[in-house]
Design a protein that fits this description.
This protein is an alpha+beta fold and about 180 residues long. It has a domain at about 5-135: Gcn5-related N-acetyltransferase (GNAT) (Aminopeptidase), CATH 3.40.630.30. Helices cover about 30% and strands about 30% of the residues. The chain has helices at about 20-30, 35, 50-65, 115-125, 145-155; strands spanning about 5-10, 15, 70-75, 80-90, 100-105, 135-140, 155-165, 170-180. Strand 1 and strand 2 form a beta hairpin. Helix 1 (about 20-30) packs across helix 3. The chain binds coenzyme A. Coenzyme A binds next to strand 5, helix 4 and helix 5.
Length: about 180
């Protein structure tokens, strides 16, 4: 069974992944390997198997059940193809109420405003239903597309962390940004 959609936007359906999505996630990873690899941690060959996709989905469902993280699929309205993914990760409750945001769009779906459309809805959900107060997103200084997307969503630069994350095998500096829950909510 696939989970119920969390959100609909004009062009997408956003939901957590279910076991039946493993072949779709596998295809997304294989088709977008060269597109995503420069911006992600090193992956071994096992990552590009349907078994690994199934394990990721099971781990993600458990994370969501425990309110630790919410890995979301952004599908077309028919729910046949994964257009993008985003994750609200490292959820911290208590007086912080924060998480880290990670995202990526399929090479074929890039440059159409789809990531923006999905994240606008995803962030409203994070600040609304999930009750979060702060969403943090960090990007490589040279990732101009990501910087533009975050600025359009209202994220503000908060700092610069040296050798912050290991991306494609290299400890890379990152620009730190965050979006705070709007006062009106
Ligand atoms: C970062 C990433 C998600 C940005 O994707 P994107 O498609 O550029 O982002 P958006 O959804 O905001 O789309 C904006 C683009 O769509 C265009 N666009 C077309 N139709 C549009 C519409 N209806 N609405 C808004 N924008 C539209 C905009 O002009 C803009 O293109 P431009 O930057 O060439 O001017 C994507 O480049 C990616 O997946 N990169 C690899 C993974 C990655 O870097 N992840 C983030 C790590 S920090």
């Amino acid at each position: 069974m696939e989970p119920e959609p969390l959100l609909h936007t004009a062009r997408t359906c956003i939901r957590l992944a279910g076991v039946a999505d493993a072949p779709k996630l596998w295809r997304y990873r294989v088709e977008n390997r060269a597109h995503l690899a420069p911006w992600e941690p090193l992956r071994d060959e096992a990552f590009y198997t349907v078994e690994h996709a199934a394990k990721t989905i099971a781990d993600g469902a458990e994370a969501a059940r425990q309110d630790r993280g919410y890995p979301c699929l952004v599908l077309d309205r028919d729910e046949t193809t994964i257009l993008a993914t985003f994750t609200l990760a490292n959820v911290v409750r208590g007086p912080l109420q924060a998480c880290h945001l990670g995202y990526g769009v399929a090479a074929q779906a890039q440059g159409q405003g789809l990531m923006y459309e999905a994240l606008q809805a995803g962030l409203a959900w994070a600040f609304g239903e999930l009750g979060l107060h702060r969403v943090m997103a960090n990007h490589l200084p040279r990732n101009e597309r990501s910087a533009r997307l975050l600025a359009r969503l209202g994220f503000e630069r908060e700092g610069y962390a040296k050798r912050y994350l290991q991306i494609a095998g290299v400890w890379e500096d990152h620009v730190l940004t965050a979006l705070i829950r709007p006062e009106a909510l």
